[in-house]
Fold this protein.
Amino acid sequence: MDLDLAQVRAFVRAADELHFGRAAAALYLTQQALSKRVRRLEETVGAPLFVRGRGPVELTGAGVRFLPHARELLVLAATAARSVRGEPLPLKVDVWGPVHRPLSLLGELVSAHPELLLELSMRRSLGSALDAVARGDLDVAWGRPHDLGRPWPAGLRRRLVCLEPIAVGVLAGHPLAGATALGAAELREYGLWIPFEDRPPELTGLLRAYAAALDVPITGTALNLGVEHTIADLRRHPRRVTPLGAWWQLPEDVVRIPLRPTPFLPWSVAWRADNPHPLLPRLLKLLPGPGTVRFDPDREWLPEPDRADLPRTEARAS
């Protein structure tokens, strides 16, 4: 049986989209051309791969069974082509954003293990990266797997890697700038301000849950253009108190103050269970495991869903 990779690619994209029009547009084809490729593939494999009718597009049983092998064929073909040119296939990893722990952690790993060839992206939301992982456009995505507003996708695995502490920032000269740490009593007077309202949901959900746990008012503004924009807004509104990473590099006029209890942004990796990329097991082995995570429930804070991701001994301590 000779399989045409263009036909296999058309099938995989149509299976991901479950919509022939969107799949055709993604592959820069007409819908008629994509349908013809899928039909020819079905003739080759000897079975219909899609249920066709007036209802939504669905995979047949044969289509469900063929899909993981089709994905693997495309990866192997790309790997073979790169090997001829002496180009190994990079592992496509979304690190969420430029200032958070995943990017620096991967930088440390690549420095120590140059064989880890990575191609990075920054979608700034695990929710927007999960579909790309499921389609095979990404191999790994980082993020917080809770408050996504959707069920966890079937076929995707995840693992807690690390906790990034959250502090607050105020401008120099702010009444709280001299504090060694801030708790509920100090925060209630000024409240917390975040540079977004409901996106990304996994981050806003965590920060709003922390504010609710301390009975602290929290407000947000809709536009988030990154750390520099957040700092500029802080300068325009000098009485604001805003959460930020405890490890971030900040300008001299911004004072970082620890929080008590200390909230954490948990970072997990997500990947497709049937992903055949040869570098994926290597990366997962090199990343810290949940057993390296340390959490003190008497002085630190996580939402209940994230506590369930902690190692068992840590979860019991909470």
Residues 61-84 form the longest helix (24 residues). The chain is about 40% helix and 20% strand. The radius of gyration is 23 Å. The longest strand covers residues 156-171.
